[in-house]
Amino acid sequence: MRTRQQVGVLATAVLAAAVMTVASGTVEAQGPGGEPQLPREGGLPLPLASSGLMAGPNVLMGGVPAGQATADVLLVSLSDAIARGLKQNLGIVLGEQSVRSASGLRWQALSGLLPTAGLRLSQTREEINLEEYGFPVAPGQSPILGPFNVSAFHVTANAPIFDYTAIQRARAGGQAATAASHSFRDARDLVVFVTANLYLQAVTGASRIDAARAQFTTAQALYDRAVNQKQAGVVAGIEVLRAQVQLQSQQQRVIFYENEFAKQKLALARAVGIPLGQQVALTDRVPYTALDSMTLEESLAQAYASREDLQSAVALEQAAQAGRQAAIGEGLPSVNLTADYGKSSSAWDTLHSTYSVAASVRVPIFQGGRVRGRVLQADAQLKQQQAQVEDLRARIEYDVRSALLDVQAADQRVKVARSAADLAGEQLTQAQDRFTAGVSSNIEVVQAQEVVATSTENFLSALYAHNLAKISLARAVGLSEERAKQFLGGTK
Length: 492
Known about the structure:
This protein has ten helices and six strands. The chain is an alpha+beta fold. Strand 5 and strand 6 (352-362) form a beta hairpin. The longest helix has 68 residues, at 164-231.
């Protein structure tokens, strides 16, 4: 029972980490004076690493820093980040110790089947009351014999010949250790997922900075053009003010996104154990790549065969079955063998050998309901574990179906958002030309700039959602580190 509880701790932490990772932080549109308003297609939240991900005791968002910070900028690719995470992430460090703990409990359970031996050395000085043992003593004689010395050493051994309860407890301990190993491998898969997600968030933040700077450059050029036209008497002063407001709005976007990107890099560095204070630069951009189609049947078959959390739950179910059998075994006979060999005398130089060998059979006759109570308790635990296994199977199918739907929808969104961004760019160019020619005011230009900002944000959000959907599918089917990176590359 103690073993299953310890293994369950890791599984619970891992599940909480997955939920916290997918439900990452968002940026809400604010009014004047707050963060810049960023309209988004379909209300898709911006994936930030600065708020929701860091809330709560989320072990997979923590890491154990390794090494010392240097003055050089550390270049980190997606592969580097994953490799670091699989070594220094807090979930990995704690998971390794959980496996060791489960292995120790397995040895404790196994010890009930193995013989034990011990050596005992003793030197005593004592007196014996003969009357205490029923020996007659002559009238007037003292019943006290001694004092005298006893020097002895004994080697004792005990070996279970048949103990059904110990056999089943050892089996349960072995299955619990197996479950801990599967849980640790599942934690590694989740670390890959979390690290890839944080990296995608950060590189998406870098792309937002690039887009915001490009829009700021355009706003600066339009402001300069409005100032020149105002000085030439072509446009009214309101056009300059309108262009200046738009310029400062774009500048605010740049500041906001630069700050968010810095925090996203901090979150990534913390999760993968990068030294404190180390400057980091991300080298990958993870562009859009369509994923090869996978059928539902193929995905489900792979998930049922590969998901480590399912393998862990099945092992825990087998451990619960062994625990029930162990409870039943408490009402069965057991056979035990004990042996003792030693030497003793009144002095160490006059020792004489003694030995004893005994075989015993223990037959429980009446246990006061204890065995029945333990069987009922173990049976309830088994039923609970069986229900959890069936629920996990259903959840795996849900995860796979949802991930496949997300991949398909995100792929279509990327294509639509890319087309919308191209059209918005053309719209802005035409609005600039019309303003330069004096055909329209720069209200049309400002509106076109906002459309460009919105369409660019929608495209970046769709691109992030597509990559997140691919690694979510990789997680749903239980893929390894290498296969997850292949999913991001677009191949199976």
